[in-house]
Amino acid sequence: MHRALIGLFRFVPLRLMYVVMATAIPVYVVVDSRGRRASYNFFRHRIGYGRLRSALHVLKNMYCMGQVVMDRFASYAGRCFGMQGPGIELYDKLSRGAEGFLLCSSHLGNFELAGYLLRPRKPMKVLVYEGETATVMQNRARLFGEGNVTMVPVREDLSHIFILNSALSDGEIVSVPSDRVYGSAKVVKARFFGQEASFPSGAFTMALQRGVPVVSCFVMKVSAREYRVLMDRLPIPEEGSRNDRLQALAQSFADSLEKVAREYPDQWYNFYDFWA
Q1: For helices 14-22 and 51-76, angle between their N-to-C axes, nearest 10 degrees
Q2: Quick check: is 39 in a domain?
Q3: pLDDT, tens only, 169-183
Q4: This prediction's pTM
Q5: What is the tally of structural domains in the chain?
């Protein structure tokens, strides 16, 4: 099915594919009761929309997620997207430096396209979770490889940590998803949308150990063929205990994530209770 979808994108207009995809959204909303509730609670209790408006934004949220999926497959088929925004200048500046740096990504927007289109001036290692089909992983590896980006799968023996640490030592770029715990016990608490939430501590621990710059990165869809890159360089705490510094850095990321999520609430693809 994935190979057929990639084939369709080679000659079917992107907007037409959006229309076809949109017809399935109401069915998906009905079937995915857990995701529907989580999305509704986000708009109702975190963003502060009324009941009807929250329900409408649940549909829009899932439609936007469908667009992101379509755009990824369109990229596999050779379609190009434009990227603009203030984050590109910071990214280029850090990429030209000799020092490695850490990109904290999230499930807000379409970060994967950054690896396809923002060609780094130095090697980049991207931490990934191997839950996709072989077709998706093969196409990811192909497009990442064209931009000097290498995927590093999460391993039970934790060998991925050594690879990422080595990359930072060699002055490379390391990208780590920083907004989902995935059952790990290594978490750090931060205030997020007015309530305490758990964030994975791995990226923040690595940054403090290595003393490298830390940047939050969000790639937001603004039109059918255009994305906006937003980045914040997070302050590295220099005083306090290790735990205090870790918590402060995590809070800086949570604040950056919340700022962009409030601007683009329909593009935060988090379909479970983040605050549980």
Answers
A1: 140
A2: yes
A3: 999 999 999 998 865
A4: 0.93
A5: 2
